[in-house]
Write a structure and sequence with these properties.
The protein is mainly alpha-helical. The chain has one domain. Helix content is 51%, strand content 6%. The chain has twelve helices and five strands. Helix 4 packs across helix 6 and helix 6 packs across helix 7. The longest helix has 34 residues.
């Protein structure tokens, strides 16, 4: 499996300028605050600031900074007609309340649709969510479907703008992972969440369980560095192919069933471990204590 690491990029010594929790203050403190295109650098500052994902994001951002990402990568539009045609169908609104957003990965650009009644600004939390998408693996170039399948197996979509994690695990895990990362970055920096519109609220609980069970390191390596094979192997080793049921129910926004499957799979694993421990003790006991017939023989 091919995984890019900071050492392979030659960036192992970079974090000398890495912001720490003591020296760092976020440029914005409210996820619901309206920001404009000129605030793009503030979004990047928050993305690279102290959080559980900082060590995974910084190497990616360092490489990305040397590529074609435009200086003002954030674009806020009042209509989908203002974005490239191939991206227009990816803007989604629910009840005319949720700000639609998408990325043009090859161009390194984020597009956000201004909320109703506004023209040139958007909420910080929505912009940060799209920024997390932008730096998800793959971050350097398009990946064609044949190459993707040979490296990661069959995916959920052939859209090359979608990150490796979401292409492998589908909408629920992909958007849920992006939002969980967004919220945990904000929480680590004391930035409050925007409480009104929560378009990904059904996706995040199952993903939080994945992180708890399989570790934040394995999760972050899969999301930002493309180690999805490692993540898949961990799930299959623990749950078998039944992890797909969790992914499918998450994508269907059926949070209760997704969490119920996780509970069921974890209980099954626990019972299997207990059974194996009982068998191990029985086998060990046979060698430690003589049976009654053997005692009589030696007597």
């Amino acid at each position: 499996m091919y995984i890019r690491t900071p050492e392979m990029w030659g960036l192992a010594d970079l974090p000398s300028a890495k912001p720490t929790a003591k020296s760092y203050r976020p440029p914005l403190t409210n996820g619901g605050e309206f920001i404009r295109e000129e605030d793009a650098d503030k979004v990047l500052t928050i993305l690279s600031g102290p959080s559980p994902y900082q060590d995974y994001i910084l190497p990616v951002m360092a490489v990305r900074a040397t590529s074609q990402r435009p200086r003002n990568f954030l674009r806020i539009v009042s209509s989908p007609e203002e974005v490239p045609e191939h991206l227009r169908r990816r803007f989604v609104t629910i009840n005319n309340k949720i700000v639609g957003g998408t990325i043009d990965r090859p161009a390194g650009t984020i597009y956000l649709l201004a909320p109703p009644g506004r023209r040139n600004d958007t909420r910080l939390e929505f912009a940060l969510h799209e920024a997390v998408h932008l730096f998800a693996h793959p971050f350097m170039s398009l990946v064609d479907e044949r190459t993707f399948r040979s490296s990661y197996g069959r995916g959920c979509t052939t859209e090359t703008d979608v990150g490796t994690f979401q292409r492998k695990y589908c909408l629920g895990f992909g958007e849920g992972a992006t939002q969980v990362i967004t919220e945990q970055i904000m929480k680590a920096q004391g930035i409050t969440k925007y409480k009104e519109d929560r378009p990904y609220k059904e996706f995040t609980p199952p993903v939080l369980e994945l992180i708890r069970i399989f570790s934040i390191d394995r999760f972050a390596r899969a999301y930002f560095w493309g180690a999805v094979n490692e993540f898949t192997q961990a799930m299959e080793s623990r749950w078998g192919n039944a992890w797909r049921n969790v992914a499918n129910f998450t994508s269907a926004r059926d949070t209760k069933k997704a969490l119920a499957w996780i509970t069921r799979l974890e209980l099954t694993r626990k019972l299997q471990e207990q059974g194996a421990e009982i068998r191990r003790r029985k086998l060990k006991g046979k060698g430690d204590f003589p049976t009654l017939s053997r005692s009589k023989k030696y007597a």
